[in-house]
Specification:
With 333 residues, this protein is of the alpha/beta class. The chain folds into two domains: 2-131 and 284-332, Quinone Oxidoreductase, Chain A, domain 1 (Alpha-Beta Complex); 136-279, Rossmann fold. Helices cover 25% and strands 26% of the residues. It contains nine helices and 17 strands. A hairpin with a 2-residue loop joins strand 2 (10-15) and strand 3. The longest helix is centred in the middle third of the chain and has 14 residues, at 205-218. It binds zinc ion.
Length: 333
């Protein structure tokens, strides 16, 4: 092993609504693993598995990572199995298991992404934790929906994932439209890159679609190929997304749902030959493109990320749930 195991590592959990902090000894890295000192741990869909940091120890086969700043993707697939060979990283049965929120984590080196200057000089390192999943999941959905220049890309939900989706869709040359019932979130989505915004509560899906087509045509947008990114992972949002493509188009449904089942117009989907795809955690191979969007200034992280201390884990989760925190909380040392 290269490097030393750090002293004073701590792990954080939420018990009875409070953050509980415990000392632990990080696992020494195996040959192809590294130990990361966490600089930012995002409290998104998978707290503890969305980190950036610096490699402070490594196994013999991962020595070239020593001292590097790295982004650790949410899903770390084995890279060898049948599902991995088919590009289905999030379904890999041998993917690395991830720990709780902690100051250090031992992970396989295979899918790490180096974030060295001048590759990533524009933002503070901790903010890049947003790319491990919060921005990567909608990016994966946009790739799976094949969002192309000129498309009308309707994003259901103006939360963090929806706003990242809008910014990425714009960067890809599409015209992003946000559907959300909350006027404050619609405003934030417009600032993040959405070109149109509609009140999801006031309009049913056909009325919203008609209104968007009118706005798009008035704005000189010719292509009316509809791509829908469902970013709420709720039954209501998914129902809306499926209704929006009942006359044709493509809908990508983000994973991490709450288990509730939406009613869907499957006749409409069948007759219009619409495409519906699922989108779980993003494949790590797509992350360099996401970093490039940040470096080019097309995906600013500062407006969507806020730092909290590790001891603020409970407040971060409760704050997001209650709507007090509208951005992506990232825990920092
Ligand atoms: Zn695999």
């Amino acid at each position: 092993m290269l490097g030393d195991l750090p002293a004073g590592s701590r792990r954080f959990t939420v018990e009875n609504g409070r953050t509980v902090e415990r000392a632990f000894d990080p696992r020494p890295p195996a040959a192809a693993e590294v130990l990361v000192k966490v600089a930012g741990s995002a409290v998104g869909a998978a707290p503890g598995a969305e980190i950036v940091g610096t490699v402070v120890a490594s196994g013999a086969a991962a020595a070239e990572w020593m001292g590097r700043r790295v982004l650790v993707p949410r899903v770390l697939p084995c890279g060898e199995c049948d599902r991995c060979r088919r590009g289905r990283a999030s379904a890999c049965p041998s993917r690395a298991s991830r720990g709780a929120v902690a100051t250090h984590e031992t992970v396989p080196a295979r899918y790490l992404l180096a974030l060295e200057p001048p590759l990533a000089p524009t933002e503070e390192l901790w903010r890049f934790a947003a790319l491990a999943d919060a921005a990567a999941a909608p990016y994966g959905a946009i790739v799976r929906a094949q969002v192309a220049p000129g498309d009308l890309c309707i994003v259901v939900g103006g939360g963090v994932r929806g706003r990242f989706a809008a910014a990425i869709a714009r960067a890809k040359g599409a015209h992003a439209a946000i559907l959300d019932g909350d006027p404050a979130l619609r405003e934030r989505a417009l600032a993040a890159g959405a070109r149109f915004a509609l009140d999801a509560e006031a309009l049913d899906a056909p009325a919203a679609l008609a209104s968007l087509h009118r706005q798009a045509q008035a704005a000189g947008v010719d292509s009316l190929e509809v791509k829908v990114i469902e970013a709420t992972s709720t039954a209501a949002g998914r129902r809306r997304a499926l209704l929006l493509v009942a006359d044709g188009g493509t809908a990508a449904l983000l994973a991490d749902g709450d288990g509730s089942a939406p009613q869907a117009d499957l006749d409409g989907i069948a007759e219009s030959e619409a495409v519906v795809v699922g989108a779980a955690a993003c494949h790590p191979d797509l992350l360099p493109e996401l970093v490039a969007l940040v470096v080019r200034g097309e995906l600013p992280l500062a407006p969507e990320t806020l730092a909290l201390p590790f001891s603020g884990l409970a407040e971060a989760i409760a704050g997001v749930r209650a709507g007090r925190i509208r951005g992506l909380p990232i825990l920092v040392p």
